[in-house]
């Protein structure tokens, strides 16, 4: 309910009388009851508060205006937030200068860009941020906490937006933790036995960002593009879970876009890699147990130094809880020999059996715990990583369904055509969701995930997605990175700042060189089209303009980093 002075957020649960009041002038947040809502207020339905943010014009309230039911999770409804609204506390913008108005408009565009990204999920009654195994090992006090208090902060994407509400425990029921990633739920049947199969990918909000601007780890050991993926089976009251993780190679390295198709990855030569590396794995071991690293990068070319450095760091750390496996995905599977992935699966089969999976019976008795995770990575932790994770998850699912009695002894999951189709498509959808959120396009190699084989059409689609990635990574990812940094609180707007961070002056060559190249190339084409009898003269003109256009192109390529769309709000690490 909106009035010129206040926002009134009414709880619509059965029997609820609480109303959250947000003062649009003082920004004070208080609790009241329904009778205090003025009849003159403009009323509209919302499905939750995402949080508040301070921009140049003042504070804004972000609310969920549309939602889609994903399914039910042990009688808890899971929703996908599909639309949002950003409401200004201020009734007018007359207090802003023209520059401030423009900056505020840009910041709003950044917020709306993040909100337009697919993959925000929430539940009003269930904690989506924790795995089944973590939830089973909690105290009664933990169970009494609000969803916001008990949530795993790595996966609460609106944690920064909820900071004001989280400071007041009495209003926590109005503050919904929102997950970013992917969730799918399917009711399946094998041998006439019905079970629920669920796949959840939780993206970390620490060191979050886009493909080429966020690589490696930060000083606290948080890895870029870190995703926890959990596969769950629910059958006759029993619940089984298998968890895997992915994350950037945990060293200090970068791969800044510079107009080249594949920028050269650079490892920081002066940083203390062991410090961040150890912090990363110390936290991973505390949370997940044993770590089985599956490094899928190329073992030659530009990716080779990263593979060697990763192997060296594991060896130097000498932690018995960490095992390192290098598998050159592209070399092993070249010429579309994707059947050779079985080499890796056979290599880790015994280890996977030792790690096991989580299983709890209908009475709540834990029958099995997962003792560790596979931590997979390639360069982006997207395409190659997702293929391997889907194969490891299927192997675990095979064991779970046999133990639960869904599969008969000797029966193979691959032989269950109807379920296989659901399984493969879900993992391919998971790949696309993670890839769009990090790289800006759908995943590569999803034809194998969906069909079990590599196809010519899949290669063509991979080429198309690679071209789109190239464009976005070079010409729009700076804005995308700024948007994420603003949303997550890595950058805070200060309206008193004398110099706008958004007004970055461009060098003259940024405008001049592309124009010269286009003009020279156009003149070259015109000379060819208007060729007369004097071919010698025409050839001279073509050569002149051709050399001018090609020369300008190489000058632009040489100065590529000056032509890409770079982040402006938070200075990203520069590694020379």
Automatic annotation (TrEMBL):
A molecular function (GO) term: phosphatidylinositol-3-phosphate phosphatase activity
UniProt-listed Enzyme Commission number(s): 3.1.3.64
Keywords: Membrane, Transmembrane, Transmembrane helix
PROSITE patterns: SAC
GO biological process, one term: phosphatidylinositol dephosphorylation
SAC domain residues: 111-440
InterPro entries: SAC_dom (IPR002013)
Catalyzed chemical reaction(s): a 1,2-diacyl-sn-glycero-3-phospho-(1D-myo-inositol 4-phosphate) + H2O = a 1,2-diacyl-sn-glycero-3-phospho-(1D-myo-inositol) + phosphate; a 1,2-diacyl-sn-glycero-3-phospho-(1D-myo-inositol-3-phosphate) + H2O = a 1,2-diacyl-sn-glycero-3-phospho-(1D-myo-inositol) + phosphate
Pfam families the UniProt entry points to: Syja_N (PF02383)
GO CC entries: endoplasmic reticulum
Parts of the chain that traverse the membrane: 510-532, 538-558
Protein name: Phosphatidylinositol-3-phosphatase SAC1
UniProt source species: Muntiacus reevesi (Reeves' muntjac)
